[in-house]
Amino acid sequence: MNELRPTVSGEPREGLSDPDRETLDRIVAGELDALEGLYERYRTMAYSIALRITAEPATAEDVVQEAFLGAWRNARRHVLMRGSVKTWLLSIVHHRAIDAVRRRRPTSEFPEPDAPTALPPALTMPDVWRSVVEGLDREALGRAMATISSVQRDALEMAYFGGLTQVEIANRLGVPLGTVKSRMRLGLLGLRRALVGPDGGYAVIDPPGPHGG
Amino acid sequence: MAGIRCSELSDLAPAFVLGALAPAEMATVRAHLAACPEAHAEFEELGSVLPALLASVDQVEPSEALLGRILDAARADRTRTSTPATAPTRDIRSAPTFLDRLGLGSGRVRPVWAGLGIAAVLAVVVLGSLDLQLQASNQELAAYQRGVAAVIDAASRPGAQVAILAPSSPSSQAAGIAAVRPDGTVAIAIRGLAPTSGSQVYEAWLVAANGKTVPIGGIQVGGTGSGTLVATNATPSPGVTVTLTLEPGPGATTPTLPLIASGAAQIRPG
Lengths: 213, 270
Fold this sequence. Notes:
The complex is a heterodimer. Chain A has helices at residues 19-28, 32-54, 57-81, 85-103, 129-132, 138-146, 150-160, 166-173, 177-195. Chain A is an all-alpha fold. Helix content of chain B is 36%, strand content 20%.
């Protein structure tokens, strides 16, 4: 299992020959074709995430448009940071979609929208896309999701797709804040266990061995 | 350090990676992570599954018309602003001395950075993390990368000043970059620092044009000689110089020698 390090997955570790990087370099140079290429590569994931969060096709498309426009404008900054382009792009989508749902919630603690091209806050999503998800099929992801309890999954989804704070989740569910905290922690750790090998290597979600069954 | 102790961070970690803290709490945690020499590996651990959450959503195609809208908007954006398409190109080798000091010949600099001016130098500091990566623990690398990200963030703010920190003596290998925001936030990422001994600490200073020198914080050195700092209470002024000294102990109020690295801050071009 030790050979199955994060680098085995689709995106090269530092991206020196990464097609996304080349695309981004061309975006920095102002090539619209490159933006189109990036869009074709990630439109489905981007839109699916936006739709899952906003639950409105029109809003979701606005979010995706803002995100790609943000990528267009801020590509230079991202080139400097050298992270995964996919992680960056999809975290912009996530961030903007969460913004959108928070804005339309009257009781939200998040009244002020970010500037249209603002980048997502650093560190809300580590640059690990390549290591965990790349190469896993949806069935495998589904199995991983099924390993955590439904209350844990609900807490994760209310936070990550619902845009609720842990306090808001506790209020909504009528449970103590500490309960929400522990559900989120156990949910994340449980998912990680399902996705990540015990040695810290990745890609062990599929049944190991010579497929006896 | 931004009003929160390391020991209090773990409790907030799950909600932080999910973005489920109130804005002020998010900012507090982020500031701590950017500045803290501790690894806080738990954040990486907990956050590493977020891509799986994103990938687990049902896949739906957007409408055919969306691409056209995006390209139209990008085209309009390009004609309205000077970036990114019409940014002037400038030869990266206009700063050979600094690149050489960092041990990075211009051959390693990718052409995409041409025209970025000070930002290109930032990139060199980021590139430096590749060297670190070969030898450092993931935690230290992550801490350094967070520090670099904080510098880039600060440098990108309107009115920010950026200083390239070059070695101040032949015996110093330290080089880095600092960004000073008008609101008094100073972010520094530096590498090539020699290990400290005993209670020694690297201290960063802001030196105003009139010579007034104010300490802005200590920088702890990791095993690979990298260090970062985010300070929030500095008083920036035009033409300020950012300086690093090696002090016999923490809490110095006036700098003593040796001077390790130094650079004059400038409003970033472009």
